[in-house]
Amino acid sequence: MKLWYNIGTLRHIPINLPKKSTMFTVKTLLVPTDFSENATKALGMAKEIAKGTKAVIHLIHIVEPVVYPADWSYAQVGFADIEQELFSNAERELTHIATVLRADGFTVVTGVKRGRASDEICNYAAEQDISIVCIGTHGRSGFEHFLFGSTTERVLRSAPCPVLSVRLKETISN
Prior knowledge:
Blueprint: E1 2-6, E2 12-16, E3 28-32, H1 37-53, E4 56-63, H2 79-103, E5 108-114, H3 117-127, E6 132-137, H4 142-148, H5 151-158, E7 163-167
Parallel strand pairs: 3-4, 3-6, 4-5, 6-7
Antiparallel strand pairs: 1-2
Helix pairs in contact: 3-5
């Protein structure tokens, strides 16, 4: 939009006004959980955001594939049964957390997915048009980070929306 500003009787200067600014609104929050203390802290942050915005909280848990070691010689152990048990336990725990949140007045959606955690979190965020992913981080570094990797880091790099990384322990820097 242009506005002409009169600086005298014969000259006008065009002024470009900014387009109508669009405010970032939070409609949905995704909180991936592994039911750890870190994830609980991330959920607490998501609750604070949701209080002010009336956003829907999406709680998901990812069941990663069970590694089938060839040398365990446990042919009688049903790994599919173990995965199903993990899936059922996650659904039960998510239902409990959602019940508590709903009693506090929040709108909650739950889900359990199978796959690599970072991939499933990013896919879910894209499919559900999530406004912010609120995820806990363990804050590992060095060899631990190399060995275990970081789901949070992979989500930060690949998510289709902003990511709020919540650290469990506060660090004091000199």
